[in-house]
Amino acid sequence: MNHQACVAAVVAGVVSCGVSGGVVLTAQPIGSAVVISGGGTLDLSSWSPSGAAGLNPWVNNAGSVGVGPIGSGIDLYSGSAFDAAGLAGSTSGFGSPFLGTLWADSGTGDAIGIGVGSGPAGNILVPNGYSGATLAGSATFLNESITSLGLVAGTHMWTWNTASGGSDFFTFIIVPTPGVLGAVAIASVGCVRRRR
Questions:
Q1: Residue 184, SS3?
Q2: Beta strands in the chain, from DSSP E residues, in sequence order
Q3: Which residues, 6 or more positions from 185, have their beta carbon under 8 angstroms from its beta carbon?
Q4: Which of 28, 99, 124, 175 has a C-alpha 20 to 30 A away from that of 34?
């Protein structure tokens, strides 16, 4: 099963795809807020511990996102190279122009995050003492929209460990604002009607 099909199946709760680890976070507008939520498991065996800190959930459209309770303890891991296929379409960030780091108003659950620079290396963050259990967390950005956070609808996926037989992934899905969906639907109907 390819990674995109696997992610779709995991999100739907249908199958685990036999992956070593995988996390899916989704950003979506809910009322006058944007909520980023999701979870999964991570295999950190190819990553190196690089420190500990306190979490403040965030999104940075240059290529990083983190969810979970404000002030919760996190362990940082770095050094793993993302597979080339996992970088396709993901190294340029989640939108443009780059707005810098935007902090969430609140967060719940477990700490989960990823940071991707311009090269093949990245950073993963997990709760202190993480041992492979299933994680689930969220971050809420009040009085914000997908657009005000500088995000562009789409799916960003990073993979690692595929050369050694693993298929670990971290996916960030950005759902468009309802107004954008409506405009696309209206435009699609107009194109179909015009063709007749």
A1: helix
A2: 22-30, 33-41, 48-54, 58-60, 64-67, 73-81, 101-103, 106-109, 112-116, 121-127, 135-142, 154-160, 168-174
A3: none
A4: 124
Enumerate the domain spans of the chain: 22-195
pLDDT in tens, 32-87: 999 999 999 988 887 889 899 999 999 988 888 999 999 999 999 886 566 544 44
**CA–CA gap between residue 27 and residue 34 (Å, rounded):** 7
Q: How far apart are CA 95 and CA 98, in angstroms?
A: 7
Which region holds residue 169: left if phi is over 0, alpha if psi is between -120 and 50, else beta? beta
Q: Determine contact, residues 163/81, Cβ cutoff 8 Å.
A: no
Mean pLDDT of 103-110: 98
64 Cβ contact list (under 8 Å, min separation 6): 58, 101, 113, 114, 115, 116, 123
| Cα–Cα distance measured from residue 196 to residue 193, given in angstroms and rounded to the nearest whole number | 6
